[in-house]
Design brief:
- The structure is a single chain.
- This protein starts with a helix and ends with a helix.
- The chain is an all-alpha fold and 105 residues long.
- Helix 1 crosses helix 2, helix 2 packs across helix 3 and helix 4 packs antiparallel against helix 5.
- It is built from 5 helices and no strands.
């Protein structure tokens, strides 16, 4: 069973690499970057493939390790809150990002 899970994870990773390599052809080491992003997602309790794909896309759109930047403590508070399900965390992050972006920060 673990072998099957590893194969599914590898297939999912391959799909993400293929998709993002087309979108960002100039980024070297894209597989390593996506693997690192997936590890961060797992640290935050993000497990579902849709949610991991969303988090990978967010990282490419906002910048690598965006949640670690100064002023982004609110994002870490949302990501690190295990009491809120992933849909709630996504909603809160997107809401706060719109607010953050509209303030010109």
């Amino acid at each position: 069973m673990a072998l099957l899970a590893d194969q599914v994870d590898q297939t999912f990773l391959d799909g993400l690499v293929e998709q993002f390599a087309r979108l960002y052809p100039d980024i070297a080491g894209i597989r390593d970057r996506i693997t690192a992003i997936m590890s961060r997602a797992h640290r935050y309790g993000i497990r579902g493939q849709d949610d991991i794909g969303w988090f990978v896309g967010l990282d490419f759109a906002r910048g690598h390790e965006w949640e670690q930047l100064p002023g982004m403590e609110w994002a870490l508070d949302i990501l690190d809150n295990p009491r809120v399900d992933m849909a709630g965390r996504r909603f809160r992050l997107e809401k706060w990002m719109r607010k953050w972006d509209s303030n010109g920060v």
